[in-house]
Write a sequence for this structure.
């Protein structure tokens, strides 16, 4: 005897079948995504793509960026042999010398306290974990230095590696964490003769990726003004930047061996005029003859 399912059972079976179908679809989609990640995106009928990641060791050099843990970043100014570095009275050489002028204006005193604490901990064989704002009090650091048999000031006499004479003042010495950042001078070095220009301002583009020029900013302009280097400044602000007519004429002058600079109106001035005209300020560039000026 065969009996039909009740409407309730049929409904349950439909729901279960729908669930199984949806589960299979999701499983297939997951498999596709995993394969895509493992094999890579198919490019034009390729059987298999292989990605190779290469790790390189790059020794630190002058111009590479380093930083501590308190916003005390900077670039390497000089690398000298270990025998030329300052050393302690027991002959221990210093690894890194930091400029003390980087502390007062930035007020990141944490780096100094970390140096003291690191020195004490290295002698006592301790490990420390202290929060930044509500951390170990200065009094406690002094106590640790005292226990380690170190001066409570955290300073020590350093001897000049070149001359063998002691420095006039005692110097803060200790241990801190220093990081080598991924801003390497070898990746940043860049030079350009001529290259792409901005369509609006006609000035060279910026950045190594766009084969851009070196930005000569406000402060650099002030430096040349202070030196009175008027011709250099005029050249930088016209034919080497956005003087369209001038930078084509300069080729001719270079070929002829003519040293005179014939500069025109920078394009940035024309852009300024157009922006003012857009504000309904009718600005026009006029010219006067010598007779009119007199």
């Amino acid at each position: 005897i065969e009996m039909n399912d009740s409407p309730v059972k049929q409904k349950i079976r439909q729901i279960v079948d729908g669930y199984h179908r949806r589960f299979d679809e999701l499983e297939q989609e997951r498999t596709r995504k995993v394969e895509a990640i493992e094999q890579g995106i198919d490019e034009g009928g390729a059987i298999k793509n292989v990605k190779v990641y290469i790790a390189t060791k790059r020794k630190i050099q002058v111009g590479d960026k380093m930083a501590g843990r308190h916003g005390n970043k900077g670039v390497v100014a000089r690398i000298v042999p270990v025998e030329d570095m300052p050393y302690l009275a027991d002959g221990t050489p210093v690894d890194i010398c930091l400029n003390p002028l980087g502390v007062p204006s930035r007020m990141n005193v944490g780096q100094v306290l970390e140096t003291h604490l690191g020195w004490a901990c290295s002698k006592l064989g301790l490990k420390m974990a202290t929060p930044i704002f509500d951390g170990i009090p200065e009094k406690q650091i002094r106590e640790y230095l005292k226990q380690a048999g170190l001066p409570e000031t955290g300073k020590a006499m350093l001897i000049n590696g070149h001359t063998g004479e002691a420095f006039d003042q005692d110097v803060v010495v200790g241990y801190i964490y220093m990081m080598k950042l991924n801003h390497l001078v070898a990746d940043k070095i860049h030079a350009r003769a001529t290259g792409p220009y901005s369509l609006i301002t006609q000035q060279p583009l910026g950045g190594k990726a766009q084969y851009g020029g070196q930005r000569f900013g406000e402060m650099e302009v002030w430096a040349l003004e202070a030196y009175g280097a008027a011709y250099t400044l005029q050249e930088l602000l016209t034919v080497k930047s956005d003087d369209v007519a001038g930078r084509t004429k300069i080729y001719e002058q270079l070929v002829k061996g003519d040293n005179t600079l014939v500069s025109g109106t920078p394009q940035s001035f024309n852009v300024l005029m157009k922006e003012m005209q857009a504000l309904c300020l009718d600005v026009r560039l006029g010219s006067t003859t010598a007779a009119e000026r007199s």
